[in-house]
Amino acid sequence: MKGCKGIENPAFVASSPYSPRRLCPSSSSVEVSVSSTNPLREGSPPQEPQEPQKSPEPPLSSVTPPGSQERSGPESLSEYEEGPCGWGSFQPQCLQCCNTPQGFLFHYCLLALTQGMVVNGLVNISISTIEKRYELKSSLTGLISSSYDIAFCLLSLFVSFIGERGHQPRWLAFASFMIGLGALVYSLPKFFSGKYQFGSLFEDTCLTPKNKTSCTASSSSLFYYLYVFILGQLLLGTGGTPLYTLGTAFIDDSVPTHKSSLYIGIGYSMSILGPALGYVLGGQLLAMYIDVDLGQSIDIAEDDPRWLGAWWIGFLMSWIFAWSLIIPFSCFPKHLPGTAEIQDGKTSQIHQSNGQSFKDFPAALKNLMRNTVFMCLVLSTCSEALVTTGFATFLPKFIENQFGLSSSSAATLAGTVLIPGAALGQILGGILVSKFKMTCKNIMKFALLTSITALALTFVFVYANCENEPFAGVSESYNGTGELGNLTAPCNANCNCLRSYYYPICGGNGIQYFSPCYAGCTNSVSKRHPKVYYNCSCIERKTEVTPTPSSFSFEAQAGKCSSQCKNLPVFLGIFFAAIVFTFMAGTPITVSILRCVNQKQRSLALGIQCMLLRLLGTIPGPIIFGITIDSTCVLWDINECGIKGACWIYNNIKMAYMLVAISVTCKIITVFFNGLAVFLYKPPPLGTDVPFQNQNSVVTTVSLECDLSKAGHDG
What we know:
It is a single chain. Helix 5 runs antiparallel to helix 6, helix 12 (372-403) runs antiparallel to helix 18 (586-595) and helix 12 (372-403) packs parallel to helix 19 (602-618). A five-stranded antiparallel beta sheet has the order 4-3-7-6-5, with no helix packed on it. Strands 1-2 form a two-stranded antiparallel sheet. It has a two-stranded antiparallel sheet with strand order 8-9. Strand 5 (521-525) and strand 6 (532-536) form a beta hairpin. The model is unreliable at 1-78, 347-355, 543-553 and 687-715 (pLDDT under 50). By secondary structure, it is mostly helical. The radius of gyration is 30 Å and the shape is elongated. The protein has helices at residues 74-77, 101-125, 127-133, 138-163, 168-192, 226-254, 257-285, 313-323, 326-330, 339-346, 361-369, 372-403, 407-436, 440-457, 460-463, 549-553, 568-583, 586-595, 602-618, 620-630, 652-680, 705-708, 711-714; strands at residues 69-70, 350-351, 505-507, 512-513, 521-525, 532-536, 556-558, 633-638, 644-650, 692-693, 698-699. The protein contains 23 helices and eleven strands. Helix content is 50%, strand content 5%.
C-alpha cells in the first residue's frame, strides 16, 4: 500500500471485499484524487455534508463491482434500520424519551450493574462460605469462579460476529434472561442440600466422652453441588457475552467519536460498581444465618467459626432484577435514531453487501489476529485480568486471614476498597481520554503510564506480611512439649479429641488452640459471651503478666485471638491507589482497540479480546490463586477418614510473598505489551486516501478519525 507507508500492521488492510476501509468524512462522495483532502483538526466543528463536487477524475463507481453501493444519500440510511421504541405496531409515545443513546446507556448500566453484582460480587464474597458448607477446596472454588469465563470464552467469537449483523438490543434482552437464570440456578444448592448442621450440641471439652464415628469410604454428597454452581456460572457467562461485545459496539455506533470513550467508561464503571454493591449487600447477608428462611433460633454467634451466612439471598434478588430488564431491551430498535448521520460523520464505506456472511468469518479472524498492535493490547489486558480476577476472588480471604477479621468484615472491607477504586479508575480513564481528545498513540501511552504506576504500588503486599498469631501445635509448642505439626501433646493425650471439630479458643497466655479439648479444658460457662473455659491443662499463664479481674475469671475464651497486626489501614490505602491506576487503563485500551481495527470488525475484535482475556486471564487467574493459597495452608480440615476439606490456618507471610510474586509478574507482562503496542503503532499520515485493492476490485480508504487531528505530532 503506497498510500499508507507509515502503517505496518494489518488493521488497515481489508481482508475481503466485505471488510471495507474507513473513509474520510469530509465528503459524501469519495474521489480518487487526494489533493483536496482537508482532514478535521482538533477543536474544529464537524463539517456539514457537502454536495458532491464534479471532478475530472473517473467516478468511483467506475471501478466498483456491480451490486456495490455508496453509503450516501437515502441509500445510506437503509443500512441503519432506525425506528421508534416499542414492539411491532405498539409504539407508545411515552417510550420514545428512552429511544436515545442516554436511554440505552441507562439500561445498559443497569444490566452491567446486575451482572457485576452477581459475577464479581456475590460469587466472590460467598466463596469462603460455600467452601465450608459444601466441603470444597480453594482450587475447586477457583474452578467455579472460572466457569463463567469458560462460557464467555467459548461463545464470544460467534456471538460478536453473528450478533453484529443482528438486532443488538434484543441480544441484550437475551443476556438479561440468561443472567437471571444463572443467578437462580446458582442459589439452588441451598434449597436441596438440607439444613446446615453445625454441631451446636457437641461440647468438645476434655472430659466429654467422645462417640467414635464410623468412617465411610464414600465422599460427602455435598461435593456434587459443585456441578450446580458450575452450571450457574456457565449460564451467567452466556449472558455476559453479548453485554461486553455487542453492547459496547452498539454504544460506539450511537454516539460521536469524541463522546465514545466517555459513554464506554460510564458503562464499564457500572460493571465495576456492581461488584461493590454485591460486596456490600453480600457482607450484610453473611451476617444473617444461612438457614434464616427456616425461622429457627440458633445458639452460635457470627464470630463462631462454624457460622455460615445467608449467601443465597442476593442471587434470588439478582434473578428478579435481571429478568425485569428483558422488556426494556426488547423494545429498542435495531439502531437508535440519528445513527446513520453519526456514522456518516465518522466513515464513508464502499462494499459489495450490507453485511458479512459467516463464510467471511475465517478471513476476518485472520485479519485481526495479524494486527500486531491489536494483539499487543489484548495480551496486556489478559495478564492484567489474571491478577485482577484472582484478587477479586480471594482478596476477602487474604484480609480475613492476614488481619484476623471475620468473613463478613473482610468481605465488606475488600468491597469498599477494591470496587470503588476500580470504578473510579474506569471513570477517570474515560474522562481524561475524552477531555483531552487523545489520539490513539497518546491513549496507548496513557495506558502504559498507568500500568507502570500500578506495578510500583503492587509491592504493598510485601508490607502486609503480618505474622501468624501463636497457634498451639502449629506454630507454638504446648508449654515446651509436643511437636509442631501435631495437635496432640502430653497435656491432652488422654482427652481423645476430634480433629474434625474445629472450634478455636484463645488462651489467657495469648496462644490460640484448635478446640477446648486440645487446650485440655474441663469446664465451661456458656452464659457469658464469648463462652469461657476453665481448668485447661495445656494453658500455662505467664507470670510476668499483670493480673486483672478479667484474667482471673477464665483461662480461655471462645474465638480466635485478636490480631496484633496494625498494617491494615496503610495496606488498604496503598492497595486502593494500585486499583485506581490499574483500572485507569481499562477504558483507554478498549477505545484503542475500537480505533485500530476496521469499522466492520469492531464487535469481532472485542469478541477476540474477550475470548483471549478469558482464556489467558480470568479462567486461569482464580485457579492459579486458589492453588497458590492452598500451598500456604498449615492446618487442613481432616475428617475421620483422613480426607482433606477446607483449610483452617494459612501461613500469612508465605501467602503475602506468593501473591506479590504473581502480581509483579503479571504487571511486568502488562507493561511490556503496552510498551510494545506504543512502539509498533504508526498512525496513518495526513491525507491518506483511496488505496486500490486490485485483487478484490474494491476501492477502500483508511482514515482513523482519532489520529487525523494530531497524527503529525505522533509519527
